[in-house]
Every structure is written in structure tokens, then in C-alpha cells.
Design goal:
single chain, mainly alpha, 2 domains, CPBP family intramembrane glutamic endopeptidase, transmembrane
């Protein structure tokens, strides 16, 4: 017999951890670069040290009665001026591949926890939107629905971005630019590894579990659709306020598709297409709709 309560508790823990991680990532300026003004300041310190040293040497040439104690004092002063503590702190720089691997590992781990929890608590696959009775025909239909939905949502997203820009609102693309690969191997990792993991985990959590499982246990699907969409939007806070709004609308559209099709595969395919097209068209081709 399914243990709906236990699995709901596990889902809550995963959701809190995910949103906390997203919040921590948002708190750090990922586009931050090493401070270029500090080396200039150090250069001034070094110039001052050399100037002091030259001045000391000139004084030694003019005044032959300087004692060894004064010479040692000047030497110590020079060492203090050029001490390692004045060196500029460096900020760690992360490549797109490292960032993609971090996202894939973290979301893959959360996804594994949810799948293992669903198995342990005997959650039926149908509650997650997985119909195992006729996987071939159901799968083909789900892929078709997902492709149509994904293309439609990407087009709507492009229109929304263009309209927002025309109204003077800025759409944040720093995260996408940071994650856009620069090598063919990076694109293979992104399109064949990272994006499927992201789409699979997020749809499993925000649609399959927060709507499918909870509505099967408690029968409040449309209320859950709104709540899961809000959580989905909050988890994408790095995209800015406009990005949060757009993501919330996208999440609710995916929730509607999930409720009417009861197919997790359909929304995973749609989610994957929206992300992939965003990277290919916006990141690789440089075509910005906003």
C-alpha cells in the first residue's frame, strides 16, 4: 500500500534543499571577475617601495656615516611595503563545463532520491505520470505532445521576451551565457547529458510529484498546479524578476499539459526542447528575442 504521507515528507525535504541551493547560488554574483583596481594599487605600493629604496641608496652614497642599524631598518621597511598581504585576492573562475557538471550532479542526486523514495514507499508509476501498460504507443504519443508543446512554449517565450523588452523590462541572460559551451564536447555534454537530467528531475519533482502524486493522495490537482508553478519560478531566481515571472507561467503551462495528459514524458520532452532551443538559438546563434 502506498505511503503517501512519507513520500510527501521526503518531497518536502528535497524541495527545501533545492530552493536553498538555488538561493545560495543566486546570492553569489556568478559573473563576478577579479577586481582590476587592486593590482593597480599594488603597483603603486611597489613603486613606492622602489622609490624608497632608491632614496635610501642615494642617502647612503651622500652620508657615509649611516650605521648598519639604519640600513636594516630601511630594508625591513621595504619588505613591509611589498609584503604578500598587499597582493590582490583572486576570485575562483569556473568553466562552463564545471558549472554544467555541478548542475547535473546536484539535480541528478535529487532525482535519484525521489525515485528511490517512490520505490520504497510503493508509489504507483501511474501517479507519477508513467503509464507502463502500453509503453510504445503511449510513449510515441507523449513525445508528439511534448514536441508540439515545447515548440509552442518556446515561441510564446520569445514573443513574451520581445514584448517585455519593448516595454522597457530587462530579461536576465547571464546564467545562460555562463552555461553556454564553447567546445563541441561541451555541447554534447549539455544537449545529451545536462539538459535531459534537468528536464527529467524538474518535471519529476514539480509536475510528477507535486501534482501527480499529491493529487492522487489528496485530490487537489489544480491547487497543486499553482503551488508547484510558484516553487518552480522561485527556483529560477537567478534569471531576475522577469525571468521568475516567465518561468512561473511556463511552469503552469507544463502543469496544465501534465494534468490533461497524465504523462511525465510529455512534459519532460517539452521542457527539454524549451531549454535546448534557448541555448542553441540564443546562446550559440546569438539571436535574442528580447
Amino acid at each position: 500500500m502506498p505511503n503517501w504521507t512519507a513520500f510527501s515528507g521526503l518531497t518536502g525535504v528535497v524541495l527545501v534543499l533545492l530552493l536553498s541551493l538555488a538561493r545560495l547560488s543566486q546570492g553569489q554574483d556568478m559573473s563576478e571577475r577579479p577586481n582590476e583596481s587592486t593590482p593597480q594599487s599594488n603597483s603603486n605600493h611597489e613603486t613606492e617601495a622602489f622609490t624608497t629604496k632608491d632614496s635610501d641608496q642615494q642617502n647612503e652614497a651622500e652620508i657615509s656615516t649611516n650605521t648598519t642599524e639604519n640600513t636594516n631598518s630601511n630594508s625591513n621597511s621595504n619588505r613591509q611595503l611589498s609584503s604578500p598581504s598587499d597582493e590582490a585576492p583572486t576570485q575562483p573562475q569556473f568553466s562552463a563545463g564545471m558549472l554544467l557538471a555541478n548542475v547535473a550532479l546536484s539535480q541528478g542526486l535529487f532525482g535519484f532520491i525521489l525515485v528511490a523514495g517512490a520505490w520504497y514507499t510503493a508509489i504507483p508509476p501511474a501517479a507519477l505520470g508513467l503509464d507502463v501498460r502500453d509503453p510504445l504507443s503511449v510513449g510515441l504519443l507523449a513525445v508528439g505532445v511534448g514536441v508540439v508543446t515545447g515548440l509552442g512554449l518556446y515561441a510564446a517565450n520569445a514573443v513574451g521576451a520581445a514584448s517585455a523588452t519593448a516595454l522597457g523590462y530587462e530579461y536576465e541572460e547571464q546564467l545562460r551565457d555562463l552555461l553556454t559551451p564553447e567546445t563541441p564536447a561541451g555541447w554534447v555534454l549539455l544537449l545529451c547529458g545536462v539538459l535531459p537530467i534537468i528536464a527529467g528531475f524538474e518535471e519529476l519533482l514539480f509536475r510528477g510529484v507535486l501534482i501527480g502524486v499529491l493529487s492522487s493522495g489528496f485530490a487537489i490537482s489544480w491547487f497543486l498546479a499553482g503551488g508547484s508553478s510558484v516553487a518552480f519560478a522561485v527556483g529560477h531566481g537567478a534569471q531576475g524578476r522577469l525571468g521568475i515571472l516567465v518561468t512561473g507561467i511556463l511552469g503552469f503551462a507544463l502543469a496544465v499539459v501534465f494534468i490533461y495528459t497524465n504523462s511525465l514524458l510529455a512534459v519532460v520532452v517539452a521542457h527539454y526542447l524549451v531549454n535546448a532551443l534557448e541555448f542553441i538559438i540564443g546562446g550559440a546563434m546569438g539571436i535574442e528575442w528580447g
